[in-house]
Amino acid sequence: MAAARRDEPLHRDDFAVFYPVTVRWADVDIYGHVNNVAYYSYVDSAVNGWLMGAIGEDLRQLPSIGIVAETGCRYLAEIDFPADIEVGLALERLGNSSVVYTFAILLAGDDAVRAIGRFVHVYVDRDHRRPTSVPDAVRTAVATLPRIDSPS
Description:
This protein is of the alpha+beta class. The chain has helices at about 35-55, 135-140, and strands spanning about 15-20, 65-75, 85-95, 100-105, 115-125. The protein has a single domain, classed as Roll (Thiol Ester Dehydrase, Chain A), CATH 3.10.129.10.
């Protein structure tokens, strides 16, 4: 799978990992579409749910925990209730103490990307909240994700 360049639109084929999410009635705002804060919830659940499945451990039990340091999202098309969606995950950057994910949100089984963005985890010591290395199990799991440059 070739890495997508920043100036090219992202497609389903750019992602190898998809995490399923069901849109809830409560996710829809007064304007009749999924509210922007719900997208961040979907991505947070997708990253952490996928990681827990990939490493076979509860992330909350690791000595180092991933704190969300940055998120960004570009909305390309509306989503409404009811819908089953998929959050595609890819790797933008794997650093010493951080992981930068690129994500895409699509309707389940559809190729059209509805939203794209980035999600940054910085790993910190659970007790002192000081930056620490990405846990080996997490590093191994995220290294399997396809690499994609940051969406523009």
